[in-house]
Specification:
This protein is α+β, with helices and mostly antiparallel strands and 321 residues long. The protein has 2 domains: 106 residues, no CATH class; 193 residues, Clam (outer membrane lipoprotein receptor (LolB), chain A), CATH 2.50.20. It contains 5 helices and 13 strands. Strands 1, 2, 3, 4, 5, 6, 7, 8, 9, 10, 11, 12 and 13 form a 13-stranded mixed beta sheet that branches. Helix 2 crosses helix 3 and helix 2 crosses helix 4. The protein starts with a helix and ends with a strand.
């Protein structure tokens, strides 16, 4: 950020005129730029000093009028002036501390959220298992069949590679869906493999797809928390972990009501993610948990459909919607 823009944001903040979007911009700048943080503190201290100086000058102007009052009144006024000066000094100190607290607390949560978001972009493989905490785990699909979300397994690599395996309620078949960076694909049991160059083509029945929080692209979904949710950094019950709690600011924001994230503070890897208050217009679960079960390398071709079925399977190309 150039110095002119930073000066503008700092001045607006100190004058109490910063908009929510501008505050978010300032927070991101302070997170990434040590020099910007130093300038913030210099400006905050100067702001407090100027405020104190202004009150002292006002007191001196009043003092020049005192000669016409009795000595006893002067003493009272002098004592009042001393008290006002001390109060102004305290106010200036409190101002600097308050500014620090006001920005530092959101910055801590923002920094933690950004760490988690960055970790989802890494190439490391992660395997999660889905548990339904509240509500109905079963979702009907075409042909009179139904999928269960309970026990679904999600494999992730980097920002967008995924494989999701769900059981059908007939107890005999599974539905596998994935994206290998070029093609998205889906098949049920021994049926034909449907492929498309549209990464979103087969997401309609994936976990979270009806709740605006699709687990197959955690990077983008977590980024959206910074816009429509209040995010706080909390103590985690599990030793060595940290926890982020996000709550919707308004009913107009799409997605779950609350999101809870437990993560490794060293790597930013999500160990557990819970969604509460999922929209119920289409039924389904009201609360879901993803639990990390493995971080082993899945192999170069794991996210290709060919790694999940025998050779010779019928392949059907589906045009992008």
């Amino acid at each position: 950020m150039n110095s002119t823009r930073l000066d503008y944001l700092l001045n607006c903040y100190l004058d109490g005129e910063l908009s929510p979007d501008e505050k978010h911009e300032l927070q991101n700048t302070l997170l990434s730029d040590p020099e910007a943080r130093r300038q913030f503190w210099r400006d905050a201290q100067l702001h407090g000093s100027l405020r104190l100086l202004g009150e002292q000058e006002l007191g001196e102007r009043e003092a020049r009028k005192w000669h016409k009052y009795p000595e006893t009144y002067k003493i009272v006024r002098i004592r009042r002036k001393v008290w006002l000066g001390a109060a102004a000094s305290a106010a200036a100190a409190v101002l600097v501390v308050f500014l620090g607290i006001l920005l530092t607390r959101p910055l801590d949560a923002s920094a933690a959220l950004q760490q988690v978001i960055d970790a989802t972009s890494q190439a490391d493989d992660r395997t999660y298992t889905v548990s339904v905490l509240k509500g109905d785990p079963v979702r009907p699909i075409s042909g009179g069949r139904a999928l269960t979300l309970e026990g679904a397994v999600i494999y992730l690599r980097g920002k967008d590679h995924y494989v999701v395996v769900q059981n059908l309620t007939d107890g005999e078949r599974q539905r596998a869906t994935g994206f290998d960076g070029e093609l998205s694909w889906s098949f049920i049991g021994n049926g034909a493999v449907n492929v498309s160059d549209d990464p979103r083509r087969f997401r309609s029945n994936l976990p979270g797809s009806h709740h605006d929080f699709v687990f197959t692209n955690l990077h983008d979904e977590l980024e959206s928390l910074g816009d429509g949710y209040d995010v706080q950094l909390r103590e985690a019950e599990d030793s060595g972990l940290r926890r982020l709690s996000a709550s919707k600011r308004s009913r107009n924001v799409r997605g779950p009501r609350d999101v809870e994230i437990w993560f490794d503070p060293n790597s930013g890897t999500i160990l557990k993610l819970e969604l509460y208050g999922l929209p119920q217009a289409r039924g389904g679960p009201r609360a879901i948990r993803l639990s990390l079960t493995d971080q082993l390398d899945l192999g170069a071709d794991f996210f290709s459909h060919a790694a999940h079925h025998e050779a010779g399977r019928e392949i059907r190309t589906n045009p992008s919607k």
